Amino acid sequence: MAIECKNITFGYSKDNILFKNISFSVDYGERVGIVAKSGFGKSTLAKIIAGYEKPLSGEIIVDGKPITKKGYNPVQLIYQHPEKAINPMWKMEKVLLEENVLNDYIINSLGIKKEWLKRYPTELSGGELQRFSVARALCENTKFIIADEITTMVDPITQSQIWHFLIEECQKRNMGMIIVTHNMYLAEKICTRIINLEDMALE
């Protein structure tokens, strides 16, 4: 198993539980959809799996070991709003250089124009920024991608380009993917398996 979620419970207090005892696993090569309406904690669960949020109870196991904040995280989370995840003081070339993914193959495949590399995040559109977020997540040591509503805010052409490349790259590198979405049509189209969080949230 690449990732195991074991009895994950999260809430803002013990009297305000968002979801409890969530358990599932995702193996390499799988594309697993986490589907639910807004307010069911999809994004929070994504942050827990990636190690950015702590559950009230339960644990995340990656390749048989608890997830750690030391060193490079092999589980990369791509956010819905890329402007919140990119340092506004850095030019885009530095954003990619930080994770050593400044290579022509990824840049060209995602439709990133070379002139964008010299710009700051505020000089790019949301769709252009999201292409960089996807590129940055595809480091050499990445084993797992969590895509949290990553194409909700972009145009249909950009949506298609991002998903086509992500799926192709994950297949080529045998990476696992978790696709967080409220869009069942999208999940059925690109996922190999779907988990309905609404059915699990308060069981």
Number of E-state strands: 9
Strand content range:
25-35%
Strand order of the largest sheet: 6-7-8-3-9
CATH architecture: 3-Layer(aba) Sandwich
* Rg calc: 17 Å
Derived structural class: alpha/beta
Number of helical runs? Answer: 7
Through-space gap between termini: 24 Å
CATH class: Alpha Beta
Number of domains: 1
What overall form do the CA principal axes indicate?
Answer: globular
SSE series: EEEHEEEHHHEHEHEH
Could you estimate the helical fraction of the residues in percent? Answer: 25-40%
CATH superfamily: P-loop containing nucleotide triphosphate hydrolases
| Mean residue pLDDT | 90
The largest sheet, given as strand count, sense and whether it forms a barrel, is: 5 strands, parallel
Identify low-pLDDT runs. none
CATH topology: Rossmann fold
Can you characterise this structure?
The structure is a single chain. By secondary structure, the chain is an alpha/beta fold. The chain has a single domain (3-200), classed as P-loop containing nucleotide triphosphate hydrolases (Rossmann fold, 3-Layer(aba) Sandwich), CATH 3.40.50.300. It is 31% helix and 27% strand. The strands form 2 sheets. It has a 5-stranded parallel sheet with strand order 6-7-8-3-9, with helices on both faces. It has a 4-stranded antiparallel sheet with strand order 2-1-4-5, covered by helices on one side. The longest helix has 18 residues, at 156-173. The radius of gyration is 17 Å and the shape is globular. The two termini are 24 Å apart. The model has no long low-confidence stretch (mean pLDDT 90).
